[in-house]
Write a structure and sequence with these properties.
By secondary structure, the chain is of the alpha/beta class. The protein has helices spanning 2-30, 38-59, 67-102, 129-133, 181-185, 231-234, 239-244, 261-295, 333-345, 362-369, 389-392, 394-403, 438-442, 461-466, 485-492, and strands spanning 299-307, 318-322, 350-354, 381-384, 407-408, 412-415, 420-423, 451-454, 471-474, 498-502, 505-509, 527-535.
Length: 538
């Protein structure tokens, strides 16, 4: 059943990773690059290579890969996991801004609705206007005794291009053409004013059939008969007017009166690049700062813990708590040396290493742990196992740290002059039959003496309470390591970081001196805690 649950969880996580990478590829590669371009190809390659490196980094150690290969895939693979977290969060936050920037405000007031009259299919009228205007168009003959005039209608003028003719001699007026006068008098933005061709004796203007129904009227090229031609009326309408006019053939106005489709694509790409670039910069800056915090080494944190049973002579006793160093393919010997120097500068009375010292075997990481020989404390240095020691073989590390001068506490107690110090194995050891045994470590002790317990995971606090422990020192949580991981850590641990009280027992949880996976910490800085015991009798 456990295997089935693990498989289901693994598949769910893998599916989530695939979906997240697909979405990031759309937002950061497809939306920001041109199809077929070098950047598009490079981004697509990275979209496959980076998650593959991340999976390799997570599985190489457990699979027994050579240590050089673990180091080769760990840096890019684990660092990408950290960047992926904050890049995804940044893109999610930027989504509303992206949608807002892509909204286009109209550049003019909305046009009033015009009567919707379907344009008749007229294949013959699809011929270019230029070919029709090349031949002279005779002016229509008016009745005898009357002057004649022809209305000059610009080709492609659409609604506003139709002009009405005014009578000059007899007062005859050109009849209104449906769909023209309304458009001209409505004062639509971008539409031209009507122009009248005035002739000596009024005559009806010639208007092509279908004008105002989606086809452009034909303009005569000859000068109107019997009068001075209006140059403005005969001039071609501006290109943008004919494009906006509803009567223009085959032209659809751009949304909001703005640029065309090609300009819109450029706008979307520009917005995608700005938003994506900002998200990448935010994620890279966050991860970079978090990496610097880990690689520079842990800072010292000091906490005073009063214990009711602590004698006056033990007042001010200092315990340096070191947890979760996580020596491995990324953090090595130099990291251990920084920790040892920091601990020794605090001049502790006792040093407690509370598990997860390593992520690998002694053969690969023995040299990285070698600086631990330099730890100095008046009452010695002690070690208990964490869950990660059991992934590579806990017993080999128990034997090795003993060679380095540390004292392993395997479900054991060491009576000190002023209080009892006990340690239990990690709960991960239950899979090998070497789990925590509180009865062996604390069962027969004198409960009138103060007791300090070293246990890697905070979840054993309730066992500590039952056995009368005064103070439990733990690690394991990393304080969440990568925000918002602290909220997830709270679901599995009674205390994520800091000092809390459970009945008569106090629990202190260190954030740890290293980092697991990516050497990055955000919102949970690494620390070495100096716990100073205080006596109520002092």
């Amino acid at each position: 059943m456990t295997v089935v649950i693990f498989a289901v969880v693994a598949l769910a996580v893998l599916g989530l990773l695939v979906l997240v990478h697909r979405w990031l590829w759309i937002r950061l590669v497809r939306d920001t690059t041109r199809p077929g371009g070098a950047w598009r190809r490079a981004g697509t390659v990275l979209a496959f290579a980076l998650p593959a490196l991340a999976v390799a980094a997570l599985t190489a150690g457990r699979a027994g890969a050579p240590f050089w290969l673990q180091r080769a895939v760990s840096w890019p693979g684990f660092m990408w996991l950290a960047v992926l977290l904050y890049l995804t969060l940044a893109m999610l936050v930027a989504e509303p801004a992206r949608a807002l920037l892509l909204r286009r405000s109209p550049r003019q007031p909305p046009e009033p609705a015009l009567p919707a009259t379907p344009a008749p299919a007229a294949p013959a009228e699809a011929a270019p206007a230029a070919s029709r205007s090349a031949a002279p168009s005779p002016a229509p003959q008016s009745p005898a005794g009357l002057g004649s005039a022809a209305a000059a209608v610009p080709a492609g003028a659409g609604l506003d291009g139709a002009a009405s003719a005014a009578s000059a001699g007899s007062g005859a007026t050109a009849p209104a053409v449906p769909g023209f006068d309304g458009a001209a008098s409505a004062g639509l933005p971008g539409l031209g004013a009507r122009s009248d061709a005035v002739a000596g004796a009024g005559a009806e203007p010639q208007v092509r059939e279908g004008a105002g129904r989606g086809t452009a009227p034909q303009a005569p090229t000859d000068t109107p008969v019997g009068g001075d031609g209006d140059a403005e009326a005969a001039a071609p309408a501006p290109a943008h007017d004919s494009a906006v006019a509803t009567g223009a053939t085959g032209v659809t106005p751009a949304a909001g009166g703005g640029p065309g489709a090609g300009d819109g694509l450029s706008r979307r790409r520009f917005v995608a690049r700005v938003v994506g670039g900002a998200a990448v910069a935010a994620a890279a800056g966050t991860v970079g700062y978090g990496t610097y915090g880990v690689l520079r080494g842990p800072r010292v944190k000091r906490v005073t813990v009063p214990l009711a049973k602590l004698p006056r002579a033990a007042h001010g006793f200092r315990i340096a708590v070191v947890s979760d160093v996580h020596l491995g393919p990324i953090l090595g010997r130099a990291h251990t040396a920084r920790i040892v120097d920091t601990v020794n500068r605090t001049q502790p009375d006792l040093i407690a290493i509370v598990g997860d010292l390593v992520d690998g075997n002694v053969h690969d990481l023995g040299p990285a742990a070698e600086p631990l020989r330099g730890l100095r404390a008046r009452h010695g240095s002690y070690f208990v196992t964490g869950n990660h020691e059991y992934f590579s073989g806990a017993q080999q590390w128990i034997d090795h740290v003993r060679e380095l001068g540390l004292t392993p506490l395997e479900n054991a107690r060491r009576p000190l002059p002023l209080f009892d110090l006990a340690g239990v194995n990690d709960v991960q050891g239950e899979s090998e039959g070497h789990g925590p045994d509180f009865e062996a470590a604390l069962g027969d002790r004198d409960r009138s003496r103060a007791a300090v317990l070293l246990a890697h995971q905070p979840i054993v606090i309730h066992d500590a309470v039952r056995h009368g422990v005064d103070l439990q020192l733990s690690g394991h949580t990393h304080g969440g390591q990568l925000w918002p991981g602290n909220y997830l850590a709270e679901l599995a641990n009674p205390t994520v970081a800091g000092l809390e009280r459970y009945g008569d027992t106090q629990l202190y949880v260190s954030r740890g001196a290293g980092a697991w996976g990516p050497p990055v910490r955000v919102g949970a800085p690494s620390d070495i805690t100096v716990v100073e015991l205080a006596s109520y009798q002092a």
